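The instructor's notes for this session suggest beginning with a concrete chain rather than abstract definitions. Hand out the sequence below and ask the class to guess, before any prediction is shown, which regions might be ordered.
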Amino acid sequence: MNYKIALIRGDGIGPEVVGEAVKVLEQVGKKFGHTFTNTDVPIGGCAIDAVGKSYPDGTAEACKACDAVLLGAVGGPKWGHSTDPEKRPETALLSIRKDLGLYANLRPAALRPALADACPLKKETADKGIDLMMVRELTGGIYFGQKERYQTEDRGEEASDRMAYSEKEIERIGRRAFELARLRRKKVASVDKANVLETSRLWRQVMHRLAEEYSDVEYEDVLVDNAAMQLVRDPSQFDVIVTENLFGDILSDEASQITGSIGMLPSASLGDGTRGLYEPIHGSAPDIAGQDKANPIGMILAAAMMLRYSLDMPAEADAVEAAVNTALESGLRTGDILEPGKTAVGCAGMGQAIAANL
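After discussion, reveal the predicted structure:
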C-alpha cells in the first residue's frame, strides 16, 4: 500500500533529523513492501520567512489529506521577539494541534540498556529501570485559555492567562491513559494540584470516576510538585502518568533527561481517529543546525510511533526500534550521548546506520 505522509521539516535541526527519518522509512518500505509519498508542509520560522506567517493558509487541509504528519522542530531566536502571534513559530504548533483535533500527547520515556551509563541518576536508581508513558492533555488548559494584558492604577501593567478544563476534556484524556495502561503494566498516576487549583479538583473528580470504571488498573493521585520529585527519586514506580497541558509540558522534559538525552525521545499527538502528528520532544537547537551534530534518534523513533499508532504496522515499528537498539549496542553515539570508548558519528551517520540495520 501507499501511505501519504506530511513532512513538516521546520527550523534549525528539524530538516536534518526529518531527512534521516525519511531514509529509515524508505528502508522500511523496501523491507516490508510499502511505499510512502511525502508532502512538504512548511510551518514555523521557515514559513514566516517565506509567506510572513508561521501557519500558512491551507496547512491544516494539507495535513488532513495525509495519513500522518512528521514534524522536526520549529522556532528559534530569530523569530522569538515578535509580539504578532502570526509571526511566532509556537502559534503554528498550537494551531495545528487544535485544527487536527490532537488532544492526547504520548511521550514514552525509557532507559535503553546501551545508555545506562548516560542516566544522570544514581546507579542503584537507574538499575531499577525506567519505562513510563507520559500522557499529556494537549488542547486545553492555560495554553489555550484567554490571555489578557491591562493597566492597573497602582501596580503597572498586569497580565493574566486563564486555565480552564471541562469534564469532557478530562474524561477523554483520562480514558486514553487507562486504555494505554491496560496494554502495559496496568498502573495510572494522575498528576494535579488539587490542593490549590479548582481545575485540578475537577480533574481529580473525573479521574476518580474513571478509576472505578477501570477497576483492573491500579490508580493513584500525585500532586505535581511531588511528581517532579518522584521522577528523579524513583522513576521505576511509574507506568502511565496522565496530566494536564502545562504540568505535562514540564514533567515530560524532566522524564526525558533522566533517560540520557532529550534527543532520544519521541512523541505522538493523537485525536479520536488514526491520524496523528509525530515529533521528537527536543527543540530546533539552532546553535548546532547544519553542522551534522544533531541526534536523529528521537525523530526516527517518532516515525516508529507513526507506524504503530497511525498506520497499524506493529512489526515495522518493532523493526525500527530494534534497529535503533542495534546501533546503540554497536557503540555508535552522537555528541549528546557520547561516552569514552564509544564511536562518535554525526546525524547522517547515525541515520544511515539505523537504516542499514533494518
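Then share the key points. The mean pLDDT is 95. The longest strand covers residues 2-10.
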